[in-house]
Structures are given as C-alpha cells and as structure tokens.
Amino acid sequence: MTFSDFVQYILHGISLGSIYALIAVGYSIIFGILRLINMAHGHIFMMAAFLAMWGVRQYLIPLPISYFLGVVIATITMVVIDRVAYRPFRKHSMSAYVTAVAAGFLVQNSVIVFFTPYPFPFPRPAFAWKVFHFGDICLPLMTLIILAIGTILFLALFYLVSRTKMGRAMRAVSEDLEASRLMGIEPNRVISFAFAIASIYAGIGALAWGMKYPMAQFTMGVIPGIKGNVASVMGGVGSMPGALLGGFILGFAEIMFVAFLPTLTMWRDVVAYSLMLVFLIFRPGGIFNVSVVEEKV
Amino acid sequence: MKRQLNIRMVLSLISALAVFLFMCWADGHLDAYISRLLHLWAIWLIFGLAFNMIYGLAGQFSLAGAGLAAIGGYIVLLLTLSPREKEVMYVLEPPIWPISVIQWPFLPSLIAAGLVAAIFGLLIGGPALRLHGSYLAMATWGFSEIVRISANALPNVTNGALGIKGFERVTNLKWVWGIALLAIFVTKRLKDSSYGRALRAIREDEIAAEAMGVNLFPHKLLAYLFSAFFSGIAGALLVELLTALGPALFAPAINAQVITIVVLGGIGSITGNILGAGVFTLLFELFRVIDSPMHLGVITIPGRPGMRMLTLSFVLLGLMLFYRKGLMGRREFNWNAAFSRLQTLLAKARGQEIES
Fold first, then answer.
1. Quick check: B267 pLDDT over 80?
2. In the predicted structure, residue B282 carries a pLDDT above the cut 80
3. Interface confidence: ipTM more than 0.95
4. Any A CB within 8 A of B253 CB
5. Contact, B233 vs B72, CB < 8 A?
6. How many separate helices (H) and strands (E) can be counted in chain B?
C-alpha cells in the first residue's frame, strides 16, 4: 500500500466516520434521556434519504427543497412514532424496545408499500462529483463537505446542550425525569425535541450517505443504523462526545480493515459487530465509561 | 394430591396422543394447503417456545434466535444431503472435507442441529448473559448478524449467497408435531421444576433472586441452552419445510415475527404460545388477501404487494400498545380450571343456581 493509498483511506475513514457519528449521536441522545435504544432510528435515516430521492424523481421538486423536505418529513414521522408508540412505555424499557422494533418494521414496510421496493439512484448536486487531485491522491469534494457539515453540526449540538435552556432541560430530564417535572420542565416536550434533533441529525447523515453512495432503497437504513448503534455503544451510550468518537473509530476501523485485508471484504460488517460484542462484554460503558443501568422488563 | 396429579397427567397425555394421531392421519388425507398451515403452526410453535423460554420464563430479551435457527438449518442440511447432491449444488466453491463426504439419517442430523445450536448458544450466552436489557438485545442481535454474514462469506461451507436448495423434504406433519409436543413437554417440565421457579424469580427481580440464594448465571445459561437447542431444531424444521435455505432467510427480521407470536399468546404462557402460533399462522395466510385489490361495496382498496407485512407490523404495534398481556396473559391451561368452567357452563345451561 502506497502512501497516497493510505492517505486516501484516511480521508475515506473521516467521511464515513462523520456519517456514523451523526447517526450515533441520535442514538446517544435518545438513550441518554429515555434509556431506550431507538431501533427505528436507522429506518428514519432511510426515510429521509428515500423521500429526498422520491421528491426529485417522482415530483421533480428542486434538489435542495427535496432534501429539506426529506429531513423534515422523517423528523415529523419520528416525533409521531414517539408520541404514539413510545410514550406509553416511559417506565417499561423492555416493552419499549419491542415496540421500537415494531415501529422500525412499520416504517420499512410503509416505504415498501407506499413508495417502492426497488432501488433507485440518489440525486446528487452537481458539486458532488468534483474531485481534487494532489498528485496521486484523489480528494473528493464530498469528503470535505461531509467533514465540514459534521463539524458544524456537532459544534451546534454542543452549544445546544451546554448553553441553551432547552439543552439544560434535556440534561435535567436525562438525570431524573420526575425531579425535572418538579422543576417545571415538561418532560414530554423535551423528549419530543430530543427525538426531533436526533432525527434531523440522522436525516442530514442520510443525505450525506446518499451523496456518497448514491443509491436509495428501503433496506439502506439497516446497516448504517446498526453501525451507528455500535458507534454509540463504543463511545458510551448516552454520551455525545462518545458518539462522535465512536463514530470516527468505527469508520476508521472499518476502512482500515478493508485496506489491510482486501480479501476479507465480505466480512466488512463483521468488524462493526465484533467491536460491539467486544465492547459490550468487556466495557459496556464504552470509552467514556458511562454508567450502565439495569432496566425493568 | 398425588392422585389428582396422576389424573391430570393422564388427561394431558391422552390429549397429546390424540393430537399426534390426528397428525398421523392428516398426513395423507388432509388438503395440502391446510396441511402446510398445520406444519407451519408447529414450527412457529417451537420458535415461540424457544423465545418464550428465554424471555417469558427468564426475562432475558435475546435476539439470537434468528442466528441459532440459521445454524440449525445449515447443520441439518449439510448432514442429510448426499455427497453427490452437494457436489452438484456447490457451484461457487467445492465443499470442504467433512461436509463433502458426510451423510447421516434425518433424526441424528436433527439432534445434531439442535446440539450445535446449543453450543453456539453457550458461546454467545456465556459472555452476553452478564448484560441486561438493551445491551443483551444488541449483543445477541450482533451475533445473529455475524451468523448471517458468515453464511454469506463462506461459500465452501454454506454455498454462500446461493444457499442450499433442490432437495427432497424428509419431514411431514408427524415429525413436526411430534417434536412440537416434545418441546411443549420439556418446556412445561422446566417451568414447573425448581429451575423454572428460580427463572421466574430471576425474571421478576434479579437482585432479590440473588438475595434468596438463586445463582443467576447458571440458571440463565441453562434456560439459554434449552432455548438455543429448540431454536436450532425449529430452524432445521423450517428449512425442511421450505426446501431452501439461504443466508437471507434467517435475517433478524424473523425475530419480529417470533416476538409477535409470544406477545400475542401471552409472554410466559405455554398454552398462550400454542394459541399465538396458531393465530399468527392463520393471520399470516388470511392477510394474503390484502396483497391484492379488495372491493368492499363501493370502496376499492388497492392492493400492493407488501401490504400484508405492513398490516402485520401494525398488528404487532397494536398488540404492544393495547394488548400487551396477550391472549392468555401469564396463565396456563389446566384441567381443574377447565372442568370447573365446564361445570359452571353446564349448570347455567340447566338453569340451576351456581353454588359457590
């Protein structure tokens, strides 16, 4: 492997890691507040990309508007799912988990039935094809854009959580839901807001994914969803810096695995699952060693 | 007390025998469609029992059933197919040594499938059962996915993505229902034993159970081994019914269907499981109508393929929201309750006063 190859891999790892981090932060936010792994998150990711594709393809909506609508509709769907399916189970996390699986299943099947089960190419803006060349190294503009978007979004998130009133409310609700109610916070509104933030981030991640791997299909959310989950577990579920770090580590690990062992490319996804198993068994708190709480069935 | 027990056991034995004899008769004489539905009922029953053992009895939400069933399916096929068939079927890469020459009769292969699945259950349960709640679910889901990817990526063992197909089916209603009845029997014995009581204690409150002297890990592992064994057997039987197996068959989505069955019947109840499996199989077939356009008087509901799965997702969601107890709750069928209810009914029919 030459140096330029290696740099390529690093760049690829950065862009992939950013996308995983965007998905992972969604899982972490929800888990931090509700102690629930939102199994529908990956499918909402899929929904944002799919709707963006569908708007352009079917209704000829201009690209930026279609992107925006995709994210917005996916976010609204997630908030509705929370309101309908998750709210009755605030206390029983295990039943909430089963409901989350059911809700994810529902979103996937809705896309199949109301739109199409067939894959279609994802519409990319014109600048997405631009590639810079530094000697042997190809640097796609997309990588820089994804990195820039990721950085801005994460800075915005940190600002939101640490400096704003809503961020304080989110931290309070994740500490103790009942006590925050006593302090005058309406937990359901905060939770809906958290779901909205998580979905917006996942939606933007989905658009980035679509621009990077331009194919939209109803199954496209499953694997990135699981990997986002793995990334959030690796960093410590519930911790936002953890999600960021976990996403990048996972992205790098995956790319480096394929780089150094190209014959084992088929086992690429096993990297994510094995890392998850290793972390769950030996360090369930993740890198930032979040406390692991027992849940009632 | 002992005498009453004997009468109940005899009654249960007689009803089990009746079911089995019915299935023996049904093998040749029943309509092929109904026969297949009964076949599927038994298989989903065993799947549900496996999940019930680990979730209903022990309270551990494990999603490894899909992966373990896949392992069971592959093992039984790799053992029962003749070397000639394998040679023809493995187009990507020739099969590796033990697989290319081995051929066993069906029953030992089935037991082997269950045992290998149990061994894998030990491998995954050993480390994973220390985790709780969502973490256990994630770890076991990861395991199922690893199994699926391994099946895809090892063409000299599993024929990769092409899968194994084109063989003769060995099982019939006698087999599956015999095994299903056996599974029910084993689960019932487990549930009623001291192990079962310990598992129930673990399910309700682990810390209290530990304080009462219940050793958590061996009990959970035991339940897990049983569950893995039956998952493997169910997978093997399903594969025999479908006469085809590929890595995509046992995708973790199948867990959603098993969960539906268990929740529908009542988590922790064996009779509920039997009923739930029956209702689910029925609904699954009845909903096929939805896939094609329906005309209800003036309203036409356009049919799109896939609406069936959508409806089933709604069913699961609705169950979780409104009917989480399921058909039987945690109750079981027992003869005393059945007889007293029968007596009350008869008394009412005769117009007599019911004496309390």
1. yes
2. yes
3. no
4. yes
5. yes
6. 16, 4
